[in-house]
């Protein structure tokens, strides 16, 4: 039955219905449709906190205290290449690849872990203030979320903060998993909603919103947690999106409504 439902999902066009914030500025934000182009299985035991694609490798970071991991697999086949677990009580959060370092956040621990992207072995740790949620790399910098409507910029080598910006609308959004897209914008999951925000990281403007509420069938969604996980497929306008304990990963395209 799951396979049949995934087949029915092919080609579905999911319209935007929900904006993350409130007020006139939010209502005027352009809406995006989510066009589903394909599906692939996703580990329903993975409490997804971050997705990253580098060439033909898919990285995934998962959370939960004492059950967090980072794994690398072949994008095309899903074959696992490497995996490492975080020791308790660390709670894994967002991940991103910056040059030759795979960075991994922790939630309440205030620790970012630098890893070898090939083996996932730990190279070092740095401390930061506040909570760690999402992380992405683009334009020579890291962009980090902390569960508020603020993005923090960090040096990709030292992890030192270099600045920050607040959203100009959708105030109160809880930015979680991030993806630095090829066009310079940032796609962000707004926890715990099904809304994805497209953000200009230089101005804080929300350029578009999309609602992913219709992706999972109700019978599967009842056993799944929040939407959380977005990564652009290199050289394309397509993205992979999934969620915590979702049984499916969706290949999608965002298009103007």
TrEMBL record:
PROSITE patterns: PROKAR_LIPOPROTEIN
GO MF entries: glutaminyl-peptide cyclotransferase activity
InterPro entries in alphabetical order: QCT, Quino_amine_DH_bsu, WD40/YVTN_repeat-like_dom_sf
SUPFAM superfamilies listed in its UniProt record: YVTN repeat-like/Quinoprotein amine dehydrogenase (SSF50969)
The entry's keywords: Signal, Transferase
Span of the signal peptide: 1-25
Name of the molecule in the record: Glutaminyl-peptide cyclotransferase
Organism of this sequence: Nocardia gamkensis
């Amino acid at each position: 039955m799951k396979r049949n439902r995934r087949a029915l999902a092919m080609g579905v066009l999911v319209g935007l219905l929900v904006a993350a914030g409130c007020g006139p500025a939010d209502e005027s934000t352009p809406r995006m449709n989510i066009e589903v182009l394909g599906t692939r299985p996703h580990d329903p035991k993975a409490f997804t906190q971050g997705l990253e694609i580098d060439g033909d490798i898919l990285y995934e970071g998962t959370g939960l205290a004492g059950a967090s991991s980072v794994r690398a697999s072949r994008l095309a086949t899903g074959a696992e290449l490497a995996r490492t677990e975080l020791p308790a009580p660390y709670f894994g959060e967002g991940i991103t690849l910056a040059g030759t370092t795979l960075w991994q956040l922790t939630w309440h621990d205030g620790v970012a872990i630098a890893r070898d992207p090939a083996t996932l072995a730990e190279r070092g740790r740095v401390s930061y203030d506040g909570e760690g949620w999402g992380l992405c790399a683009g334009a020579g910098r890291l962009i980090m979320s902390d569960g508020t409507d603020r993005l923090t910029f960090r040096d990709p080598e030292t992890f030192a903060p270099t600045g920050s910006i607040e959203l100009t609308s959708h105030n109160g959004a809880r930015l979680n998993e991030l993806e630095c897209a090829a066009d310079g914008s940032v796609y962000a999951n707004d926890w715990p909603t099904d809304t994805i925000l497209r953000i200009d990281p230089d101005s804080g403007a929300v350029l578009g919103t999309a609602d992913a509420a219709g992706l999972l069938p109700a019978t599967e969604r009842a056993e799944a947690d929040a939407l959380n996980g977005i990564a652009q497929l290199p050289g394309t306008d397509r993205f992979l999106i999934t969620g915590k304990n979702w049984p499916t990963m969706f290949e999608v395209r965002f298009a103007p409504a």
